[in-house]
Amino acid sequence: MNFAIFAKSTEKKIHMEMEIIGSWMIAGGVAQKIVVFSPSFLTPTLVNQISKCIKETGLLGAQVVVALDFELLNIELEPMGIIIDSHGMIAQWNLEEIRKRVGQDFYRDD
Fold first, then answer.
1. pLDDT per position as a tens digit, 83-103
2. Residue 66 contacts by C-beta under 8 Å, 6 or more apart in sequence?
3. Nearest residue to 10 (alpha-carbon basis) of 63, 65, 57
């Protein structure tokens, strides 16, 4: 299934088409938030595409916060995710710890 994300802010739009894998939701204005419920959804390619979309808008301070909200083998971990802006991403997670719990394919391109 293809899905388009439109984020409107001061008459500029961020538009990106992506293939949806798993459940997710979007909320926000200049700062968008995507909550990821499926480990297979988030890939480096997706992050690069989102960053490119942000850069193309030219909106100062625009960013997308990606929060991870999937079960990690019933073990409580601090909230984790990434912040994507026009320059790339800022990781706020322990990638190796997540991969231990959900598999080594997490956050990798095919």
1. 999 999 999 999 998 898 888
2. 33, 34, 35, 36, 42, 47, 81, 82, 83, 84
3. 57
Asked whether 27 and 33 are in contact (CB, 8 A), the reply is yes
- Count up the domains in the chain and report the number: 1
| Structural tokens at position 45 | 């390619």
Residue with tokens 């916060």: 65
What's the domain range around 70? 2-102
pTM score:
0.71
Residue 83 lies in a domain: yes
Is residue 49 within 8 A of residue 94, CB to CB? The reply is no
Give phi and psi for 105, each to the nearest 5. Answer: -80, -10
